[in-house]
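User: Hi! I'm working on a homework problem where we have to compare a predicted structure to a textbook description. Could you give me the structure for the chain below?
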Amino acid sequence: MRPLTLDGYVGQEQAVGPGSWLRVAIEHDTLSSVLLYGPAGTGKTTLARIVANTTHAAFVEVSAVTGTVKDLRREIEAADSRLLATGQRTILFVDEIHRFNRSQQDALLHAVENRTVVLIGATTENPYFEVNSALISRSRVVELQPLDDRAIRTLVSRALEDQNGLAGAFALEPDALNEIVTLAGGDARAALTSLELASQMAAPAGVPPEAPNEPLVITLEHVREANPRHGLAYDKSGDMHYDIISAFIKSMRGSDPDAAIYWLARMIDAGEDPKFIARRIFILASEDIGNADPQALLVAEAAFKATEVIGLPECRINLAQAVIYMCLAPKSNAAEAAIDAALAEVRSGPRREVPNHLRDRHRPGSDEYGAYLYPHNFPQGWVEQQYLPDGLEHGAFYTPGPRGWEAWRLEAVARDRANLG
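Assistant: Happy to help. Predicted structure tokens:
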């Protein structure tokens, strides 16, 4: 079902829509080196096949899974001979280019730079992390997004009718189509695989699906039978990992328990390390809640301990309890702001001496340091006294939040000190 021309290509309007650089380059056969970056099933290899079908250049392919430096050098030498002998360019397609190590990627540099080959690299990993920066600087990065529901519907409907697909032998119930779209999660390959498997469930034994009397109906149940488990895409070290943990943290910070629990479920379902999740909750308890609710840190600690002692699947409940607590707790980032401001002062400010009355007394001459006022000798356990070094004033670093225990204690302290006055 791969289209052979851009007219048959579905989705990715931002990358190959009318007037885009990539579309113009393909249509005019003037493509320069490009890295196609996006999740599985978004059309990276299909675009390379379209280039192969439309270009006048020689098109060769090397797999980064099985290819070696020797394979690359052989293709580059052949491209160089071809260019010298006939003037024909060579387009080199490297699928899963991020799987090449640095020395393999380095082998491409000179050939790409002097245009012995035009590189098309396809990767599901962020090329700015996984591809040699020198190679990126000689190429253009084009990002492909997960296909939207409309594009998936178009692909499935086309596969039902196309002679290269199911050739009209099957009809798809609307609910079944909706289920395939949902299960695909923006992955065209996953959608077509679900359709193929569901068609096998719908075809009774002994009836050749290519020539039924009437189209066989694929129902919602057929789709679900063909896909007993709905697994959403997730990578434990790639962009999706960081995107989902970012959404998880921001949902807790934003006090949205439904969203935070959803992202928690996405990670648990994908097999994420529960201790990694618990560590992020632990950090958030101080970073975003702090002393607005000091209990949050204890809840986070208990959740982390549960992941160590209990483990999955049971610790999912402990994690969920902690996540909901973090969402509902009052928020304050005063602790983080205070330590970051103090560190900035320490690292860029002048050297500041300890006030004499605060210095250690276990040395000769300490009697001249001046009197230290012991707070417990005074009502309310407090007395006015300089603790900051000279040049810094109260409020230089810590600004209490206006919510929760922190705000209540601030008011209580101010009230007590006023009474002392």
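For your comparison, note the following. The first helix runs from residue 13 to 16. Strands lie at 34-37, 58-63, 90-95, 118-123, 140-143, 170-172, 216-218. Good luck with the assignment!
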